[in-house]
Amino acid sequence: MEIISRGFSGRRSAEAGKLPPGQYLTATFPVLSAGPTPHVPLDRWEFAIDDGTNVLRRWDWKSFRDLPSETFTTDIHCVTRWSKLGTSWEGVSLDTLFADLKTDASYTLVRSYGDYTTNVPLKDLMNHQAWIAFRFEGEDLAPEHGGPARLLVPHLYLWKSAKWVRGMTLMHRDKPGFWESLGYHIYGDPWREQRYSGDE
Amino acid sequence: MWRVGKVVALHDETAMARTITLEVADWPGHVAGQHVDVRLTASDGYSAVRSYSIASAPNPERRVELSVERLANGEVSPYLTRGLVVGDRLELRGPIGGWFVWRPQQTEPIQLIAGGSGIVPLMAMIRSRASAGSTAPFRLLYSVREPGAVWYRDELQSLPDRDQSVSVTYAYTRAAPKNWPRPPSRVDAALIASTTWPSNLVPTSYVCGPTSFVESTAGLLTAAGNSPDKIKTERFGPTGDRQ
C-alpha cells in the first residue's frame, strides 16, 4: 500500500541514482554510537585476530602502522538513511592482515574498545573490500568517528564498520553482534535494503 | 512492513516544533525510547524516509506521538511540521531499536539528559514510568537555548508536584529566565556534579541530543565516575533529521 503525501514534492538530487534505496545524501558526517566515545591511547592500542581459543596475530600501533597501507575513495551508507559519496580514507587492507594466515572459518565477530561487536562474513572482508582505517580526508581519524582506527567495510551498512576496533574472532558459525542482537539485520546490504531483522 | 497512521491531533511545542499524534490500527506496541521510520511519497512515486523518536508511552489506544523539529533545509520535517493536517495518513515502520530504551522492570535510578529536541525519547520514558506505575527515581537535565525552546513545558512543570521522585533541571545555553541562578552556558562538570545522580548509586543514564552535546555530556558523566556501560547515547547530526 502506498499513500501519496498530498503536497509533498521532495528534494531530488542529481546524485540520487548513486544511492541505495531509501537513502538520502548528506555532506556532513553524522555520528551514531551506542555509548560514550572511548579514548584509546596509542601506546595501549592493539589489534588481534583470534580463533576463539588462541591469538593468531597481534599488532601494536607501531607494527600495525609499519604495514603497507592504501588510500581509497568510497561511498558510505548508514542504516539511519544518510549516505555520503566519495569519502577518502587511508588504512590497512584486511588482505594484508590475513596475508599469511590460513583459516577455514567463514565468519568473524569484530570487537571494539567499549565492548561493541559486529559480525561480518570473512569473505566480505577479503579481496579489497575492507580496511582498518586510521585516516579520513587526510586527517587522523577523530575519536567520535572511530579513531585511532576503525573497520571500514563500505559495501555493508556502516554499523558493520566497527569504530575503535581492537580485534576479531574467527568463527565457523555466524553469531550476531551488538546491533544484530537488537533488531538490525544479520548481514546489512544497503543495496538490498537489509536494515532490520526480518528484511529479506 | 509499512503501517498506516492517521493523524488525529497536531500540537505546536514551539515555533519550530510540532507534535503529531497518529492512530495506527495495527500498532504492535512499543518500548519507551524506540523510534519509527516515516515515509513521504510524492505523486510521481518519489519517496523520502526519516527516523523520528516516539514521544508517547506505550498505550492501549494504539496511539503514537512524534515530535518533530523543523530543520531549515530539511526535506521531510517542513512537511511534517507545516503541511500535515488532521485526517491525513502517514506511512510508518517500526517500532525500531532495542538499546536506547527504558523498560518498567528497571528499578535503578535513571538519569535523563536531553539537548534540545533530544528530549523526545526521554519524554517517552518519563511518560512510560507514570503509566506503568513505576517508582524508579528519575532525574532529567534538559539543556535548551532559551526558555521559549522548552518542549512539553506544562507537562514537565507539573511532574515534580505529582511525584517527588521525578526531578527536572533546566540548563539554558543562550538566554535564561530572569533571576535564574546560573548564567547561560553549556552543561559542565559543576552542573553534572550538582544535579545528576552520584555515580555510587549506579544510575543508568540516557543522553540524547546533537552529536557535540552528547559527546561532551557523556564524557562528563564518565569523568564523574559513571561506568561507560551504564551510559546509553543517541546522537543526531545537523542534517540528520533524526528526531
Dominant shape of chain B = globular
User: What quaternary form is this?
Assistant: heterodimer
Judging from the principal axes of the Cα atoms, what is the shape of chain A? globular
CATH superfamily descriptor of chain A:
Oxidoreductase, molybdopterin-binding domain
CATH architecture of chain A: Alpha-Beta Complex
Q: Please tell me how large the radius of gyration of chain A is.
A: 17 Å
Provide structural commentary.
The complex is a heterodimer of chains A (200) and B (243). Chain A is mostly beta strands. Chain A has a single domain (42-192), classed as Oxidoreductase, molybdopterin-binding domain (Sulfite Oxidase, Chain A, domain 2), CATH 3.90.420.10. Chain A is built from two helices and eleven strands, in the order E-E-E-H-E-E-H-E-E-E-E-E-E. In chain A, a hairpin with a 2-residue loop joins strand 8 and strand 9. Chain B folds into two domains: 3-96, Beta Barrel (Elongation Factor Tu (Ef-tu), domain 3), CATH 2.40.30; 110-236, Nucleotide-binding domain of ferredoxin-NADP reductase (FNR) module (Rossmann fold, 3-Layer(aba) Sandwich). In chain B, the strands form two sheets. Chain B has a six-stranded antiparallel sheet. In chain B, strand 10, helix 5 (211-223) and strand 11 (231-236) form a beta-alpha-beta unit. Classes of the chains: A mainly beta (200), B alpha/beta (243). Chain A binds chain B through residues 1-12, 22, 24, 26-38, 80-82, 114-115, 144, 178-179, 181-183, 196, 198, and chain B through 1-2, 4, 37, 40-43, 45-51, 75, 79, 83, 88-91, 96-100, 211, 215, 218-219, 221-222, 228-229, 231-233, 235-240, 242.
